[in-house]
Write a structure and sequence with these properties.
Blueprint lengths: L1 H4 L18 H11 L18 H13 L3 E5 L2 H13 L5 E5 L4 H10 L2 E5 L3 E2 L4 E2 L4 H10 L6 E4 L6 E3 L2 H9 L4 E4 L23 E4 L1 H4 L7 E5 L7 H11 L6 H16 L2 H19 L4 E4 L7 E3 L3 E6 L5 H10 L6 E2 L4 E4 L8 H13 L10 H4 L8 E3 L4 H6 L2 E5 L14 E2 L14 H12 L3 E2 L7 E5 L2
Parallel strand pairs: 2-3, 2-6, 6-8, 8-9
Antiparallel strand pairs: 1-10, 3-16, 4-5, 7-12, 9-10, 11-13, 13-15, 14-15, 17-20, 18-19
Helix pairs in contact: 3-10, 4-5, 4-9, 6-7, 12-13
The structure holds pyridoxal-5'-phosphate (PLP).
Length: 469
């Protein structure tokens, strides 16, 4: 702000010169933001070697979250996940991974050439979505694979199911295994009750959060925190962040990360209560709509549903996708939809104009028809939990050398997948390279396809790449 107010003359990057050189028709739209979009000028510090304002802002962040060190990320949780994995795991090393992880975790494991051991998550019956790991399964994996170099968790799930990780972290630490947590959807968990416990409060070693998902921060803005007693080398994390993040980090994103931290800090108990009671009144209004099933808590005692997440389902058994389409016709845009659910992310603030929003939702519901070929996740959706702890058929290095052939998806049962199949959203792979294609997996893929969810990179999806026998 100080720099902007000094009326600076720019002979440096970026080329828009504080917003003065810009397509005229868009100038007014971008003007205020471009004035903040500067670069590593004297006095504006450097994300890759912070000594001034960025250092101060990151210190404030660490102190708010009680972390040993905290970092601004300008390439999302994606880059944080990749950096924390590179800092912890070497090629060929074994690592325990919660199976419903984001693709950035799988991408990092592939690039490292690590050997993942997947632990199958539990499933929430109401939404039929994967949640978190059962403590016993983690213990079994730790005992079977005592050479594991890390445990990688995702908490909360995309749909907002969160568990207290304290016991899981304790068990991993007892085996000297560091715990790395993708907390992309939980940047607000540090607020305390009624929000779930943050992985940092459960002693996880590294925690990455997408500030842009639930806090008022700009898209791509995330935080990475290192815990006070972390088993992971701080210098290694910094080394990889320098490699993977842009050498021209966005100042508007960094500033918004600082402001989001400030916003969180400004939320006292009173304000949080006001927000929660505004949410409750909105949820009650939603519940009064008779064509809607509203899920705002969790049946399983181990989990809480993040108060910022509400899942709705059409009670006439229409798919979540068709419900979402009707809502969009009324100008209401939601986070994601699948065969069964539509996920709403509530603001970390009071919900304004509730009656108007509810009447739009009510209008949308009038248009929700049951299609002829309806696929309902609750009727025939399968999450295979037969093998709770499983290994890939080949190492990533071996996969690179193997011959790949394309075959009909319907005929592929028993083969080893050579490509990743990701329904988006939620961006969690149904099938990963190296996994056995079981008949249950084929049913799962069919359900996603039939429900209209986009399978990334596959508009027509009748064939699949598999490793040649
Ligand atoms: C669980 C999870 N982890 C990581 C990511 C990636 O986060 P970002 O968009 O901040 O890179 C996402 C994005 O949807 C996610 O859902």
């Amino acid at each position: 702000m100080n720099h902007k107010e000094s009326n600076p003359i720019s002979f440096h990057v970026p080329g828009h010169k504080n917003g003065n050189v810009f397509l005229n028709s868009a100038k007014s739209l971008f003007k205020d933001l471009l004035a903040l979009d500067v670069t590593e000028l004297n006095g504006l510090d450097d994300l890759h070697d912070p000594e001034e304002v960025i250092k101060e802002a990151q210190n404030l962040l660490a102190s708010y979250y009680n972390a040993k060190k905290s970092y601004f990320l300008v390439n999302g949780t994606t880059v944080g996940n990749i950096a924390m994995l590179f800092a912890t795991i070497n090629t060929g090393e074994l690592v325990l991974v919660q199976r419903n992880c984001h693709k950035s975790i799988i991408n990092a494991l592939t690039l490292i050439g690590a050997t993942p051991i997947f632990i199958t998550p539990q499933v929430d019956i109401n939404t039929m979505t994967p949640t978190g790991l059962q403590h016993d399964d983690v213990i079994e994996a730790l005992n079977t694979y005592s050479e594991a170099k890390a445990l990688i968790l995702t908490n909360p799930s995309y749909y907002g199911f969160a568990q207290d990780l304290t016991k899981i972290v304790e068990s991993a630490h007892a085996s000297q295994v560091p715990v790395l947590v993708d907390e992309a959807h939980g940047a607000h968990f540090g607020l305390g009750k009624p929000f779930p416990k943050s992985a940092l409060q459960c002693n996880a070693d590294i925690v990455v959060q997408s500030a842009h998902k639930t806090l008022p921060a700009m898209t791509m803005g995330s935080y990475l925190h290192i815990n006070e007693k972390s088993l992971v080398d701080v210098e290694k994390v910094e080394y990889y962040l320098k490699i993977f993040q842009s050498s021209s980090p966005s100042y508007p994103i960094m500033a918004s990360l600082d402001l989001a931290r400030n916003y969180l800090q400004s939320l006292n108990e009173n304000r949080i209560n006001t927000i929660i009671s505004s949410h409750s009144s909105f949820i009650n209004k939603l519940k009064s709509l008779n064509k809607l099933k509203v899920i705002s808590d969790c049946q399983e005692s181990n989990y809480i549903l993040d108060p910022l997440k509400v899942i709705i389902q059409a009670s006439n058994k229409a798919t979540g996708i068709s419900l979402q389409k009707q809502l969009e016709k009324e100008g209401i845009f939601t986070e994601l939809a699948d065969s069964k659910n539509v996920l709403l992310i509530l603001p970390l603030a009071e919900i304004k104009n509730q009656q108007e929003v509810i009447s739009k939702i009510s209008d949308a519901l009038k248009g929700v028809k049951v299609p002829n070929r309806e696929v309902r996740l609750n009727e025939n959706f399968v999450f295979s939990r037969n093998r709770r702890v499983s290994k890939l058929a080949f190492s990533y290095k071996e996969m690179e050398k193997r011959k790949v052939v394309t075959m009909e998806l319907a005929q592929s049962s028993g083969k080893i997948a050579a490509e990743v199949i990701i329904p988006y959203p939620p961006g969690i792979p149904v099938l990963m390279p190296g996994e056995v294609i079981t008949s249950e997996k084929l049913t799962e893929i069919k359900n996603w396809k039939d429900s209209g969810v986009r399978i990334q990179g596959k508009s027509e999806f009748n064939n699949i790449k598999v490793f040649d026998d």
